[in-house]
Specification:
Cofactor: Mg(2+)
Helix content: 40-55%
Keywords: ATP-binding, Magnesium, Membrane, Metal-binding, Nucleotide-binding, Translocase, Transmembrane, Transmembrane helix
Organism: Cyprinus carpio
Shape: elongated
Largest sheet: 9 strands, mixed
Membrane topology: Multi-pass membrane protein
Subcellular location: Membrane
Amino acid sequence: SCCLFLYFISSEERHLRANDREFNLSFKYANNAIKTSKYNVFTFLPLNLFEQFQRLANAYFVFLLILQLIPQISSLSWFTTVVPLLLVLSITLAKDLSDDITRHKNDNHVNNRKVEVLINGELKSEKWMNVQVGDIVKLENNEFVTADLLLLSSSEPLNLIYIETAELDGLVSNRFIKYSISILYISGEVRCEPPNNRLDKFTGTLTMRGETFALDNERILLRGCTLRNTEWCFGLVVFGGPDTKLMQNSGKSVFKRTSIDHLMNVLVMFIFGFLAFMCTILSIGNAIWEYQEGNSFITFLPRADGANASLSAFLTFWSYVIILNTVVPISLYVSVEILRLGNSYFIDWDRKMYHVKSDTPAQARTTTLNEELGQIKYIFSDKTGTLTQNIMTFNRCSINGKSYGEVVDFAGQRVEVTEKTEKIDFSWNSLADSKFCFHDHKLVEAVKSGSPEVRAFFRLLALCHTVMAEEKTEGELFYQAQSPDEGALVTAARNFGFVFRSRTPETISLVEMGVPTTYELLAVLDFNNVRKRMSVIVRSPEGKLTLFCKGADTIIYERLHPSSSKLMEVTTEHLNEYAGEGLRTLALAYKDLDEDEFEKWKERHHEASTSLEDREAKLDTIYEEIEKDLLLLGASAVEDKLQDGVPQTIEQLAKADIKIWVLTGDKQETAENIGYSCNMLREEMKEIFIVAANTAEEVREELKSRLLGKKSQVVEDEKVDGEYGLVINGHSLAFALQKDMQLELLRTACMCQAVICCRVTPLQKAQVVELVKKHKKAVTLAIGDGANDVSMIKTAHIGVGISGQEGMQAVLSSDFSFAQFRYLQRLLLVHGRWSYLRMCKFLRYFFYKNFTFTFVHFWYGFFCGFSAQTVYDEWFITLYNLVYTALPVIGLSIFDQDVNDRWSFQYPQLYAPGQLNQYFSKMAFARILLHSCYSSLVLFFIPWAAMCDTVRDDGKDIADYQSFALLAQTCLLIAVSVQMGLDTYYWTAVNQFFLWGSLSVYFAVTFTMYSNGMYLIFTSSFPFIGTARNSLNQPNVWLTIFLTTILCILPVVAKRFLFIQLKPTINDKVRQAKAVPPPLPRKFPRRRISTRRSGYAFSHARGYGDLVTSGRFLRIPVKSRPALFPHTDTMHTETLDNKITY
């Protein structure tokens, strides 16, 4: 039997045997089951209640309940606390249960997927959760990869494995495999690195039959990928379940809390202290009163044995703790949950965030973070699949000095290309790709008329590449390109009559204008990041030798023959125009070769390619020798297609003073191109800093040279002269994130309008987000679509997943999700701003009405001998927050809006107050406290003065405690209701119903509870018999209510009037301008003037020309291939392309 042996030198290593479950189980490796849920049937109730009572307010109300059960100090009935507490706990229990049931369903769906596992020489169907480390599994086309696998064999004739990594990063990649073994007899040992989160790294060696082969990440197929265009493949499970790199990158679920939540905790602690202060004042007053006046009452209120002024003061303290507990009303937390849930539904139901094409609505996956959406200062975005569609389209080209691709009308004026613009009919070409679109008919006419330059242009595109062609049925071609850019160019050549059909290591087969033609492939001068060009040398059927070259225009221009100088000038103008439109440009050139010259060069090339020292440098020198005196053909322009509305969204968010950082795994040049395309980087910027050093000291020097601000531990926003941009690559970022350098990085970045980090790993993405969170007093949002964005999404205050694609890992870890990046501006500028405004208004009003309610009790203490008597009826105290004022404030908090959504887009500056915490802060809380203190003084002393020594119009006395209590509570309710009316900007039928309905309910309940019937049935519970009809039929009572209300709201109205006139806010200005409706946004074609030409990016890694010409992975296609089982002869060790892009 064959022995499979992996070895990895490490302090910790994974040791397993293939096909030996008993041995592998002894190490207790994690199986393939995943678990993202928090509770089970037995732990849900105790664990959830434990979590809820960790919230200080809930524990406080349990403490209050215990106090109320002690007769000596209980001044209120127990039901005033139990009913609200049970309501809060029940609502939270139901919400958490619903969330966890959803998580259980998702886990079960994944864990119960089926896969075929090789057990005792037979393939058996197993659930994913039962797959063990060391098992050999068989995957079939379009199946998800079960676990992290070492690839063993494939069904493909060319030994290709095609995988889609949408679950990981939204990309599609190809893999070549090379070695083969019989999977039936694998019984060797495996030693490899321990589980880790490095998606781009795997280390080990394979020892088989005395031979040793290096194993790296290219041999590993990660969980989360999908098998495409491959009938089957076999793999050995190396990591399972929570040990897979996908789950290792998911990170721990963090309970996120908003900045308002954190502020609330601080305020609640202050309120507790303030409550203790008030109770202490009143208890001291009680001790003084008992000492001075208490003896006068002993005759008819005898004291208990041992009772004295000190004991009375102690008991009074706790009695007032119960009475004044409404400064921290438990209904606040119920209302906050309802408010957040309501605003979450508005996001879910928003049709303007619904993507019709993918049938994907927006979704608020977390209901506790809505108001934080109105405070975002920094957005961290992935690029591929988030800003771009990862679709390249051939848009323009310049051939022999003539530009093609622009559509003009009869007057010669440029016409914007839309879906209605007439497309070229490629029906004359039976092999054309039906999905390819082009609109300039002049190019087709030039091809058909036999223009030699145009035909040479497309012949170059059809020959100079490393694309693989797949033709499963006659005439149906599928191109597998190592990057979308190459695929777009080869597809363009295909549609214009130069069809790349197949290749072998020695030949390239084309169909040129319907005529099959085979070129002999003599050499591939491959692309890399230094050369920035690629060339092929081919021999035509006529025996003519030609070198075709494509690359960055600056590189090609340096190698042109002087005869191309005039053409170069014209082509440069065209390149500038294309770059101005944000397209990615590429220059094309060729050279006819002499046979003798080529043979001599070929010998030198062979020597360099077999050299053991400095092979790369020698090959580059050899390539330079032949890639000179080229003749320019023209240039191509490809659009890296952005998602719809990306530039406009970024522009709107920038106007709202939101800074956007792009964190991408792409190479620097590609990232810069996208930066320009979506208006993050602009030509008018004063300077764009590039940090690309390879050592810590060099990075430090580059950052210091850019650093203009002062040094301090707290990084504040600094004003700089002009706009700057920053581009930093992954190597430099790794050094810059070190503790001694990260503040310099952050200061430099914060002075820049746009920041792009390229070639970053998932871990670095999270580190950048954490750096800003730690040192900036700002709210962060991360948005992405792949598993490589999960850590970043979980680290940020708000995580947004792009849904509607096959990759759903980011969505499952996110707080909000939608299908397109452009919906982000509506999420923030409309829903986020409204949610923040509503929450702040809710909190201001809620604290105002409850402090006012409580302070009246405080003032009354000075008139009742500090006896802890309530100023209101007990039933009013119970129903005040639960019934009388609950619905109006919820209506205000769910439906209110200062301006509508169109005005919110028209004036993005309206977003700024949220970033600065202007609507609710410690200072705002202090103002509420003072306002409540004033209102409570009015609400107590005006009714007190009005009732003192007052009689009815029939001469009867109404100056009793119950009449005063009724008047005080009626004044309070009407005053806070009018105050809420002043705070309401947007009236709806629901608001009106809640407000007037609550007042009606108050009077209905009052007259019912104070009736004779209720007193007769429940004498002890309803003692206020006849009070309502005795007091509320008196004109002086209503005059007192009117006067009290006017005095309460007069300072508020006066202050607002003066501030609007003298110091108006942006909201005031916009609301005053609302008389004129905002103009509809005008749409302009995206076009910018630029002198910068984007260098074309061939791929994210070195090309694969050596593999294309080596023949190591290519076989002669056969008509049929026997099934793999029970014997196969292929095993994976070579790859065509990177699986994951960083």
